[in-house]
Write a structure and sequence with these properties.
- The complex is a heterodimer.
- Chain A is mostly beta strands.
- In chain A, the strands form two sheets. In chain A, strands 2, 4, 5, 6, 9, 10 and 11 form a seven-stranded mixed β-sheet that branches. Chain A has a four-stranded antiparallel β-sheet with strand order 1-3-8-7, with no helix packed on it.
- Chain A starts with a strand and ends with a strand.
- Chain A is built from no helices and eleven strands.
- Chain B is an all-beta fold.
- Chain B has a single domain, classed as Sandwich (Immunoglobulin-like).
- Chain B has strands at about 5, 10-15, 20, 25, 30-40, 45-50, 55-60, 65-70, 75-80, 85-95, 100, 105-110.
- In chain B, strands 2, 5, 6, 10, 11 and 12 form a six-stranded mixed β-sheet that branches. In chain B, strands 3-9-8-7 form a four-stranded antiparallel β-sheet, with no helix packed on it. Chain B has a two-stranded antiparallel sheet with strand order 1-4.
- Classes of the chains: A mainly beta, B mainly beta.
């Protein structure tokens, strides 16, 4: 089973309010990723966990937080949503550094 | 520096015709290359991957891709497309350090 699940599939948020997105995988993958994808753009890596170590991209360091309470789950947290956060958020996982990343269906976030 | 270029943002072909989607990459290390497809309202799905060996790799649904080190390319091909192949196709480069470099994607429309 190569399933990555994401909840919710759709999220409506108000400007200034927090947002929490959830991702899970049962493949015992050591690495989990979060990407942001906007229309007509390539997915942009926000951060990833390698085991318990969080790595955040420099340009999104202060905008997104994450936690990984166990190997299977990973969250993406936005403390105060802005209009620019409206996008599709993709979670992925992989086993090993160069191994295939398996993607979830995504969460479509709309901030109003 | 690592990068992926998909020169064609949109491609339209007739059902039954052959297909080639182009991908050029730039990598300072050993490239690991992938093609992913995103169908409407779904997450990214792996079509095929290349790590080493035979430069022609077979994927799902009749897709194949050919790696060329001399041309820094990894073009995707299909002999006969079906209307259900309409989707966005992403070429992805990894250099083995958990970073995926995405092209901007090529939107394929198959006309019945």
């Amino acid at each position: 089973d190569t399933t990555v699940k994401q909840n919710p599939r759709y999220k409506l948020a108000r400007v200034g309010k927090p947002v929490n997105l959830i991702c899970s995988q049962t493949m015992n993958h050591d690495t989990m990723y979060w990407y942001q994808k906007k229309p007509n753009q390539a997915p942009k890596l926000l951060l990833f966990y390698y085991d318990k170590i969080l790595n955040r991209e420099a340009d999104t360091f202060e905008k997104f937080q994450s936690s990984r309470p166990n190997n299977s789950f990973c969250s993406l947290y936005i403390g105060s949503a802005g209009l620019e956060y409206s996008a599709m958020y993709l979670c992925a996982s992989s086993r090993g550094r160069e191994d295939t990343q398996y993607f979830g269906p995504g969460t479509r976030l709309l901030v109003l | 520096a690592q990068s992926v270029t998909q020169p064609d943002a949109r491609v339209t072909v007739s059902e039954g015709a052959s297909l080639q989607l182009r991908c050029k990459y730039s990598s300072s290390g050993t490239p690991y290359l992938f093609w992913y497809v995103q169908y409407p309202r779904q997450g990214l799905q792996l079509l095929l991957k290349y790590y080493s060996g035979d430069p022609v790799v077979q994927g799902v649904n009749g897709f194949e891709a050919e790696f060329s080190k001399s041309n820094s390319s990894f073009h995707l091909r299909k002999a006969s497309v079906h209307w259900s192949d309409s989707a966005v196709y992403f070429c992805v480069l990894s250099t083995g350090y958990q970073n995926f470099y995405f092209g901007k994607g090529t939107s394929l429309t198959v006309i019945p």
